[in-house]
């Protein structure tokens, strides 16, 4: 069981200082999400040999380890040129993972929920190109469904991953997306159990049920606009059923990665991330 920090709230620190901060907070692992000087959102990586050397030295000096890299590209987008660019970005990102001695990457389905069929077909086309590279390089891949992705549902996401039929491609359950996964029901136990042995990765953060109050929890104008909303809050600040979440994981003997990914409190990031680490250590013992 590995508890990792997503250091997005520290993205304005240099890479060595970000690693120092992770160690200072007590985390043993970093899950590196997009940042402008490494793997920026949707763009070609900004990494050279010097930056890789700098990052690896910081990890070595502190004893912090890299649990995974999290790139995000339009590999399921409906625009074919954007999809091709995303595949190019992925190929370079995989090379960087190899150079960083990191054997795991995680990402999102991406695409668009209002153009789901086309985006799923684009996703499969990208996977046909990329899966042989992941396999050749010995890199595992964990995929999550994100709000507004071409697939937002838990069970369908698990089935898409099963359909790829590769033991190195598995499922990431993001707790802050819980109420998108089953239309606001929030039946965590059922969803985690459905994922079963394909569940290898968690993102830990709280959120509100956007479908509560007769779908009036959030009012978006104009009515009917395509938009999604969720939060990444500290445990206890939203409506995720955490007792059920943790008890189900213990019953399943979950032994993967749990990544703390709080984005809401940049003004008190240290306090937030220390609180989360202490809670997870209590829950996972």
Structure, explained:
By secondary structure, the chain is an alpha/beta fold. The chain has ten helices and eight strands. It has helices spanning 15-25, 49-62, 80-99, 116-137, 154-164, 178-181, 188-195, 212-215, 242-252, 269-284, and strands at 2-5, 29-32, 65-69, 104-108, 140-144, 169-174, 199-204, 257-260. It has an eight-stranded parallel β-sheet with strand order 3-2-1-8-7-6-5-4, covered by helices on one side. Helix 5 links the parallel strand 5 (140-144) and strand 6 (169-174). It starts with a strand and ends with a helix. The mean pLDDT is 97.
- Count of extended strands: 8
User: In sequence order, what are the helices and strands, one letter per element?
Assistant: EHEHEHEHEHEHHEHHEH
Q: If you compute it from the alpha carbons, what radius of gyration comes out, rounded to the nearest whole angstrom?
A: 18 Å
Q: Helical content, roughly?
A: 40-55%
Count of alpha/pi helices = 10
What class would the helix/strand composition place it in? alpha/beta
For the largest sheet, list the strands in their spatial order: 3-2-1-8-7-6-5-4
Mean pLDDT equals 97
Low-confidence stretches: none
Distance between the termini: 10 Å
* Major sheet: 8 strands, parallel
Our estimate of the beta-strand percent is: 5-15%
Question: What form results from the Cα inertia axes?
Answer: globular
């Amino acid at each position: 069981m590995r508890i990792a920090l997503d250091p997005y709230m520290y993205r304005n620190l240099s890479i060595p200082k970000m690693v120092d901060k992770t160690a200072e907070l007590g985390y043993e692992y970093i899950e590196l999400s997009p940042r402008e000087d490494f793997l920026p959102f949707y763009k070609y990586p900004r990494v050279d040999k010097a930056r890789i050397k700098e990052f690896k030295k910081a990890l070595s000096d502190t004893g912090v380890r890299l649990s995974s890299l999290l790139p995000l590209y339009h590999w399921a987008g409906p625009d074919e040129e954007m999809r091709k660019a995303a595949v190019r970005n992925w190929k370079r990102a995989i090379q960087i993972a190899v150079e960083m001695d990191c054997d795991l990457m995680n990402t999102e389905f991406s695409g668009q929920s209002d153009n789901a069929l086309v985006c799923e077909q684009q996703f499969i086309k990208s996977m046909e190109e990329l899966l042989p590279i992941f396999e050749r390089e010995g890199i595992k891949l964990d995929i999550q469904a994100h709000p507004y992705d071409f697939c937002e549902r838990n069970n369908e996401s698990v089935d898409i991953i099963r359909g790829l039929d590769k033991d190195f491609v598995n499922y990431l359950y993001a707790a802050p997306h819980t109420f998108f996964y089953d239309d606001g029901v929030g039946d965590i136990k059922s969803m985690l159990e459905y994922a079963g042995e394909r569940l290898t990765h968690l993102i830990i953060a709280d959120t509100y049920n956007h479908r509560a109050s007769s779908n009036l929890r959030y009012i978006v104008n104009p009515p009917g606009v395509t938009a999604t909303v969720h939060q990444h809050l500290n445990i206890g600040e939203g409506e995720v059923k955490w007792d059920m979440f943790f008890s189900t994981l213990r019953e399943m003997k979950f032994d993967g990665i749990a990544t703390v990914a709080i984005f809401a409190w940049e003004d008190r990031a240290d306090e937030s991330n220390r609180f989360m680490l202490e809670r997870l250590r209590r829950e996972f013992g």
